[in-house]
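seq as requested:
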Amino acid sequence: MKPSLAATTSSDPYVPGHGDLSFDVDHYLLELEYNVESNRLAGRATLTATARQDLDRFELDLYHLRVSKVTVDGAAPAKHAHQKNRLIIRPRSPIATGDSFTVSVAYAGSPRPMPGPDGDAGWEELADGVIVASQPHGAPSWFPCNDRPSDKATYEIETTTPSSYVVVANGVLESRRRRAGSTVWRHVETSPMATYLATIQIGRYEQAETDTAIPIRTVYPAGAGEVTIEMFARQAEMMALFVRRFGPYPFEAYTAVITEDELEIPLEAQGLSVFGSNFATSAWEHQRLIAHELAHQWFGNSLTLGHWRDIWLHEGFACYAEWLWSEESGGPTAHDQADRHWHLLEELPQDLVLGDPGPDLMFDDRLYKRGALLLHALRRTVGDDAFFQLLQAWTTRYAKGTVTTEQFVALAAERCGASVGELFDRWLRDVRLPELPAS
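struct tokens:
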């Protein structure tokens, strides 16, 4: 009897049905052609990968789009099947542990956001363009991938669209060439990137760039420049603060894309963030989110969790960055922010475990604030110098890699003393909100 081609179990229980642990992707080449008017996407994805074990089959994630052709090392596989958002491939010959192989998938269709336990994510049409926001499970809505955050790869993204549109994607825009009413945009991301952070943004955009050591671009709807640029004008100051506190910026540039549409929340990607037009105000609730998304470039994009249970390593750090910016920009101090949010959390249900919140609470606002409060508790325990030196050691030692809570706790013990272990136990494992240490 032949082995079944049924899908394997998920690599992460927080995002069931995604990812394959049997191989790692080293590089994605995405060749995309998109018609904005009809929402029609035709693509070819070429994945260069390495087997982590002997493979007689492996799986890719792909949602809704139709596969027309698959090759493995240039030859048709023995069999492939697209079942329940998983593309299951059996190569003609087994692939040995450690061997490199190439997979090419041609596909097409009308992309749409991918449903998940926390809502829809991925490719989404705007009134006149596209946003792609894939956290945590939406990458398969637009390309076949090994959709687990622990599998980081480099990317080439080549996108062909009508010439009246601008394409923004991860990495550096290496070329832009016109052909018969269309423009081909080629972006290259040389820093390893998790699939959920890969993105393209398509719209009728203009841009402005700061004259700073780290290029900061603001991309905005045509004709909306003056107001938008003013509302995002403090990004360079935020960048300077975070470089002082967190260490060198990990990528070549940073881009903020502001869509003409209003969005419920800002959206994070590697090297860029996406905001709706409703966030282009001077209100603190919007300015703090500009700081929050920028901080994710260190915490989430350079240092990326390996398992979604460690989401506080992204959101707690980015939330604490908001409080640092509040103090820097003349607002309440970080301690004032911590004290205020501690009292707010004390009045809310005490049913969240920060170190393993479960899929239903992984994006609960209490997790963001508890994570930031843990960091403030650590800062008050070890002092400012030791705390910020720890953060810089954290971002340097694991730059552009995959991280876990255990690694951060171990580094804190190494640099600040083993006694901090008790603090982490309380904040990460207790359901009840711990007290903040006295200053």
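Residues 1-9 have pLDDT under 50 and may be disordered.
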